[in-house]
Amino acid sequence: MKYRHNSSLYGFFSFFFFRSSIFFLITFILMSTTTSAWAKSTVAKSTVVKTTVANSARLGGDAKRMTFAVNLSKKVAIKVFTLAKPYRVIIDLPEVKFHFPSGYGRKAKGLVSAYRYGLFAPGKSRIVIDVKHPVLVTKAQVIDVSGDKPARMEIILVKTTKEKFTLNQAKQNLGKGMSSQKPETKKPASKTKTKDATSKEDPRPMIVIDPGHGGVDPGAIGSKGTLEKKVVLMFSRRLRKQLLATGLYRVTMTRDIDTYIPLHDRVKIGRRNKASLFISIHADSISKKRRRRNSVRGSSIYILSNKASDAEAKALAALENRSDIIAGIELPESQNPVTNILIDLAQRETNKLSYMFAKLQLKQMRGAVKLHGYRTRSAGFRVLKAPDTPSVLLELGYLSSIHDEKNLKSPKWQKKMGKVLLKSIEAYFTQQVAVDPY
Ligand code: ZN
User: Fold this and answer.
1) Please, are residues 252 and 195 in contact by the beta-carbon 8 Å criterion?
2) CA 288, 217, 126 angle in degrees (round to 5)?
3) Band (166; pLDDT cuts 50, 70, 90)
4) Measured in angstroms, how far is the CA atom of residue 283 from the centroid of ligand 1?
5) Calpha distance 205→239 (Å, rounded)
6) Pair 232, 145 in one domain
7) Residue 164 Cα, ligand 1 centroid: separation in angstroms?
8) DSSP letter at 279?
9) 186 located within any domain
C-alpha cells in the first residue's frame, strides 16, 4: 500500500482538525463498547509480601488420563477451568514464583502437548496446559505442607468426548468451575497507580513502548532458548532510557515486568495516555521445519491493514494475535458494525501517520542493521488497532537465526537499534511539527 503525503496547507489543517475532533468521539465509543477486567492492571507492581514458590512440576500418565503435579512452598487457592479452540486447561493461582528449570513444559507427553506458566496480572499467576483432545478435570486440589513435604497441587485430566467437554463448559460458565477453595473475594493488589497519568500540561510527545508477550505468554523461543518476552522487555527498557535521556519525550511502557497483558489492553494503554506514537516491540521466529533457518533474519517494520501486504506478514499477524489464546483468555466480541464505520475513517487517517513513521524507521534501519526485506509491510495486527494512535510493530529480528539471537541479546546491538529508533522518532516529530505547528 502506498500513501501520498498531502503537502497543501489546506490539506494539513483539515486533516488535523479532523483528527482532533474525532478523538473525543472515538474515545466515547470505545469506552462505551468495551470493558475489561484487566484494563487497570497494567504495569503496577504487586505488593504480595510472601510469594509462593513453585519448585518443580511433574506430568504423569498416558494418552487417556494424566496427573499434573506441582510442588509449592505453601498451600494456595486455585481455580481450574477449560477452554476450547484450541483445547486448553487453565489453572489460576495467586502470584507464584516459578523456579522451574528452563525448557519446562515444552515437551509433549500423553494427553498434553505443552504447558506454560507465568504472571498473568499483578498478584495473579497462571498455568496454561495445551491438550491434544477434549478433557475433563476430574480432580483439582492443593494438599497442604506436611512435615518436610512441600504443598502439592494435583490436577487430574481425563480424555473425554467433544460433547461432554462442551456440556462441562456450559456448567463452568454457570460458575461451577473447579476450585480448590472458595474463590477469594479479596482483589489482587492492583491499586497501585500506573505512570499513565503523567502531567497533562507537559507538551512533549508521549511515546508508548509495548514490549510484546510476557508472563504466561513467552512469545517466540530462540534456537538457544532465548525467550522473546525477555529480550523485548530488555530492549524496551533500554529504549525508554535512551528516549528519556533526550529530554524531548514522555515515555510509558505497557509492561515493565514479566507479566501478560491482553492485546486490547495494550491498545487501551496507548489511548489512555494519548500516545503520539505507539511502538510494539517483537522478535520473530520461523519453524524448525523450514530449511535455511539461519539465513532468514533481519529486522522489519509493520503497520495495520485489513488486507495483508504479503503472505508472510499475514502469517506473522496471525501468530502475534495468538497471544491472548496462548495466555488462556477468550477473544473479545467484535464491535458494533455502526461504530466501526466511524472508527474505520479515523483509522485511515491515523494509518497515514503510522506509515509515515514506518517509512522513516525503514530508512534509518537501512545500512545500520540487517533488514529482512526493504519495504514497510502490513497486516491485521490486533495490537495496532487504536483508531487514533499512530502505531507500528517492530520485529527486531529472528530468534530462530543464531546470528539474530546473539544480536538481540547483546546490549551493544540493542543500543544501536535504540539509536536508530531515536533518529526516526526525531525525524517523525520534525515532520509533524512542520505539518502542524500548533
Ligand atoms: Zn511477538
Assistant:
1) yes
2) 135
3) confident
4) 5
5) 15
6) no
7) 35
8) E
9) no
Residue 420 inside a domain? The answer is yes
Distance spanning both ends of the chain, measured CA to CA: 29
Q: Give the confidence band of 195 by pLDDT, cuts at 50, 70, 90.
A: very low
Tell whether 34 and 58 lie within a shared domain.
no
Opening angle at CA 189, ends 188 and 195, nearest 5: 130
Instruction: Say yes or no: 278 and 375 in one domain.
Output: yes
- pLDDT tens string 293-341: 667 889 999 999 888 888 888 988 888 888 888 887 765 555 555 566 7
Could you tell me the CATH number of the domain that includes residue 158? 2.60.40.3500
Do residues 147 and 125 share a domain?
yes
Pairing of strands 277-284, 178-179: unpaired
In this structure, the answer to whether residues 158 and 226 fall within a common structural domain is: no
Residues 166 and 28 in one domain: no
Q: Residue 418: how many CB atoms within 10 A of its CB?
A: 19
pTM for the full predicted model: 0.73
Residue with cell 497515514: 352
Compute, in angstroms, the gap from residue 319 CA to the centroid of ligand 1: 8
| Separation of CA 122 and ligand 1 centre (Å) | 21
* Pick from 141, 133, 132, 135: nearest CA to 168: 135
Residue 305 and residue 301: Cα distance in Å, rounded? 13
| Chain segment 227-245, per-residue pLDDT in tens | 999 999 999 999 999 999 9
Q: What are phi and psi of 250, to 5 degrees?
A: -100, 150
- Distance in Å, CA 301 to ligand 1 centroid: 12
Domain region containing 326: 9-40+194-435
CA of residue 427 to ligand 1 center, whole Å: 26
Domain end residue (candidates: 152, 179, 206):
179
Instruction: Using alpha carbons only, give the angle 341, 347, 348 rounded to the nearest 5 degrees.
Output: 95
Per the domain annotation, does 4 fall within a domain? no
The tens digit of pLDDT for each residue in 95-109 reads: 999 998 888 888 899
Q: Which neighbouring-strand residues pair with 275?
A: none
Ligand 1 centroid – CA 323 distance (Å):
8
CA of 279 to the centre of ligand 1 (A): 13
C-alpha cell at 62: 498416558
CA separation for the pair 1, 257 (Å, rounded): 36
- For residues 26 and 389, give the distance between their C-alpha atoms in angstroms, rounded to a whole number: 11
75 part of a folded domain: yes
